[in-house]
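Appendix B. One record, verbatim.
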Amino acid sequence: METLFLAKDRKGIGLRAVRRLNMKKNGYFQLITSGGTTAIRLIPEKDGGEALRINEVANYLKYLKIPFQPRLLDEGLKKHEDTVIPLDAQSRAPEQEMCLITVSDDRMHAVIRFYAPSDNGTVMDRSEIMDEIACNKIQYGVIQENLDAFLKEREYCRDYELAAGIMPKSGKDSQIEYLFSTDTQAKPKLKEDGSVDFFNLSTICHCKKGDVLARLHPELHGEPGTTVYGENLAPPAFEKKVLKFGKNVLLSDDKTVLTAAKDGHVTLEDGHVCVSDIFAVDNVDTSTGNIQYEGDVHIKGNICENYKVRSSGNVFVGGVVEGAYVEADGDIIISRGMNGMDKGVLKAKGNIVAKFLENTTVTASGYVEAECIMHSRITAGDEVIVTGKRAFITGGSVAAANRITAKVLGSQMAAATTLEVGVNPELRQRYTQLQKETADLQAGLKQIEPVIQSSMMKLKQGVKLTPEQVKYVQTLSATSAAHRKKIEENIKEMDELGEQFDATSEACVVVSGVAYPGTRIIISDIPLTLNKEYRYCKFKRIKGEVKSEPV
């Protein structure tokens, strides 16, 4: 708080002002300088008003450089009656009425507190008060009605609200409305006959030339504020977004609309709206050589052995893939399937869907889906789904962060088959640490809050707190605020972590048919090798062990 103690030709000495809590008559004091001596008169409060504070009297006397004995002042105040306390035998000139102006730290509020003139001193008129206000550079929001109230009632040692500023008003961030699906996790649908529809995946957002792809809703500006010093306060900053776009997209003249420049499909890549057209070939063979393309690749037939296909978008194969290398920044869709010949590789930052996968290495950041998987090495960032009429996994290894689903696991011939699901243990450890820290902070708040509330209640009841008590309450308040801020930060981080491993907290392997002996199942590093057949069950980690339960 910024404070100034004012009289006609005097500057501040920093007396502390306290907001007025009610309209009752406060206690006050008056200097007596007549009769050749100096004394201080203490007038007690009335009808529940604020009691006179010794520090306020002491600071007033120090400001005037009048010696006093704190013990005598304290004893006089404790009497709670009109009391005159001699100070010294020195003759002094009369003291006029004084005022103390206090401005809040944010400069949005000011209060004025008046002190009585000496017994033969003069009072301030409105023009003198306005001069003092001007000297303190308060230029805005002066509440004249409150000055009128003081001039009428002349209540001393009471806070009058002097001025109020205007807080700036917030505006509104600009928003971008995308008129296409930005969800890239669409999965294939199961047909009525039990087979999987590999063609209508809804993973591509098709568009036509001239289609509106995105709109920018402009920001709304806020309104500035003003402090009691007349300073302009800018409104809070708002986020001003712009439409970002890539190839085959047009921006309107007013920069608020994006449209497709040609037929294709639209994607959102790192915040940029892009339209990709499709590179289509019949087969990848000697007639084409290896393919590397910025966009989708549509192969109507097959990808032959030893050829490579790289795409910055999605790869669609209408036939089969032999021992080839296929990599995509989006999805890989193979209508019939792939025989990798122990050298074929599929690698996608999105999802991989194929009729079958045999002797193949497969890596997907999303999910992997097929009707059967044989002697392959499969890794999925989300889940592995084996559905359809046969729906089996035999031989090799299959790993997924969240879930593996199949009808048949392993084989009657005990083909070495390993399935692994689970969550990153480092994420779980951090989450547990945050939980414990948050609980400790909340327990600390439960101990602090009652003390703060009790102290505030005492202040409202007019109970005087010692400087040590005030300092203690201030320390507790700061600790409480720090605890609450840290709890909020922890909860936010836990929510972010939860989004990463909530799906894996129920990591499991689901068998809708039979799991044969010899099949090895690992859940969060806990292994289980099946020694008998299991049917229609789900394997989960339960109390530190991998156990089965009915589906």
